[in-house]
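Hi all, posting the design record for the shared folder.

TITLE: backbone redesign
STEP: 1 of 1
STRUCTURE INPUT:
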């Protein structure tokens, strides 16, 4: 008897690993729900790599999202509800009809996902790839987050013609921002800035040039990102050789600064502990500060500011002297002058009174010219702008003899060490500021 029992036990144990590997995900059955008040307000993939549910965002706000669950950096890779947070008491439910429904504490539905073709949904699952799916009983996926990306794509994910990524607004605000990465219906892969609050696209600031030849954008299992072509070939977005997806988590995100970056993060803790952030593997475009944004829009930074790549090659938006950020929490929103504009008067000497020019080397605002002089020097350029009440700034060329006068708002400015342009900014002198400002009582 005992030997028969041992034999049976042995058979069961031998079968067990096979049984587990065939079962690749945890089903979320119809009628299941989670509330953000639950102790564990999310579902995890079988490997535990990804979670789907309520990500604690701010003190009392949550995002319905997908994120990396195992590593200390709980990076979000997808958000529901257009990135808008929900308050305490919100609930996500897979209803008995197979609709994934997000409701607030008073039961109002604010977002939902359902089968694209009226198929009967049998269950949902968060897969080990990071894809959350609604599935039929035959395991046909009838809605998937991989088909509805927000700002990120993951290995094994494909963008079809007409699909896009939209950047979020700021580092912590997941609502829609100003940049798009689109695989157009004609096969061209392009980056745009959007003329908010409309959906109008400005001229592209990067394009793959694959009109009539591109078919899909693939992020394959080995970590390569490329366009597949009608010819059967591929067009890689980077020549870098990826690291292993077995050892590294990988994602590619259209960041809130308009740059598309492929990132890596080690799956197991290195000897000196987990890194505090993801490493950038490559990015596109290489220098967004000097990318060509066409005629309209503010470019990467807001109006009246200028863009400079920092030591990590990330764009940093800065204000010229005499200016400050419109929103100190969002440097991408642009800058405002800290003074009242020069008033146009018939008497030139009175216009100039209280104003001065400040020099910003290697800096240019290539747009918004209203006058161009030749065969003049920097000193002449400065004086001419100073006494012209329409002039916000002037650009002079080192060793050259050009002078461009600029009007408000200054747009698509950048500082680049290799630039021979010298920006001359008109600002109010400090004493004048004090005399005209709040400080009158001191006089
Ligand atoms: C439910 O709450 C939302 C805010 O979360 C509010 O806008 C809506 O009016 C409320 N609806 C009802 C029926 O109370
Ligand atoms: C998930 O549910 C489907 C449909 O009910 C079923 O066929 C499948 O075996 C289930 N899978 C697991 C891993 O439980
Ligand atoms: C991913 O793409 C690269 C480049 O085309 C290719 O060499 C590699 O075999 C692909 N990996 C998989 C798993 O398809
Ligand atoms: C007021 O203006 C005077 C000079 O006119 C300056 O010395 C003083 O610091 C100013 N006070 C403030 C509060 O700005």
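Okay, here is what came back for every position:
SEQUENCE:
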């Amino acid at each position: 008897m005992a030997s028969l029992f041992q034999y049976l036990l042995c058979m069961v144990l031998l079968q067990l690993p096979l049984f587990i590997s065939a079962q690749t995900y945890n089903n979320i059955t119809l009628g299941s729900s989670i509330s953000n008040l639950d102790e564990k307000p999310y579902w995890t993939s079988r490997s535990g790599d990804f979670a789907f549910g309520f990500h604690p965002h701010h003190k009392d706000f949550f995002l319905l999202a997908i994120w990396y669950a195992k590593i200390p950096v709980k990076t979000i890779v997808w958000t529901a509800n257009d990135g808008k947070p929900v308050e305490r008491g919100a609930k996500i439910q897979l209803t008995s009809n197979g609709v994934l429904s997000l409701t607030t504490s008073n039961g109002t539905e604010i977002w939902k996902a359902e089968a694209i073709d009226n198929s009967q949904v049998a269950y949902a699952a968060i897969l080990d790839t990071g894809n959350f799916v609604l599935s039929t009983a035959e395991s046909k996926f009838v809605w998937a987050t991989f088909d509805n990306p927000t700002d990120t794509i993951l290995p094994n994910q494909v963008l079809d013609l007409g699909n896009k990524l939209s950047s979020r607004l700021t580092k912590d605000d997941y609502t829609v921002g100003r940049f798009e990465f689109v695989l157009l219906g004609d096969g061209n892969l392009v980056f745009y800035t959007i003329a908010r609050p409309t959906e109008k696209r400005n001229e592209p600031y990067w394009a793959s040039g694959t009109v009539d030849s591109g078919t899909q954008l693939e992020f394959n299992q080995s970590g390569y990102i490329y366009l597949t072509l009608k010819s059967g070939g591929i067009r890689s977005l980077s020549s870098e050789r990826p690291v292993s997806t077995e050892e590294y988590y990988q994602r590619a995100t259209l960041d809130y600064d308009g740059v598309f970056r492929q990132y890596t993060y080690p799956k197991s803790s290195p000897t000196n502990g987990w890194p505090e952030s993801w490493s950038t593997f490559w990015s596109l475009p290489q220098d967004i500060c000097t990318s060509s944004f066409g005629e309209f829009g503010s470019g990467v930074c807001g109006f009246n500011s200028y863009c400079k790549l920092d030591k990590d090659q990330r764009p940093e938006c800065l204000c010229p002297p005499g200016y400050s950020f419109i929103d100190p929490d969002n440097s991408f929103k642009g800058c405002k002058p800290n003074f009242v504009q020069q008033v146009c008067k018939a008497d030139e000497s009175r216009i100039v009174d209280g104003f001065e020019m400040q020099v910003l080397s290697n800096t240019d605002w290539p747009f918004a010219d209203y006058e161009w002089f030749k065969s003049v020097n920097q000193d002449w350029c400065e004086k001419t702008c100073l006494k012209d009440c329409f002039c916000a700034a002037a650009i002079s060329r080192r060793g050259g003899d050009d002078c461009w006068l600029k009007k408000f708002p200054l747009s698509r400015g950048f500082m680049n060490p290799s630039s021979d342009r010298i920006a001359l900014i008109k600002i109010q002198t400090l004493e004048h500021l004090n005399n005209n400002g709040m400080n009158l009582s001191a006089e």
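COMMENT: The radius of gyration is 28 Å.
Let me know if anyone wants the other runs.
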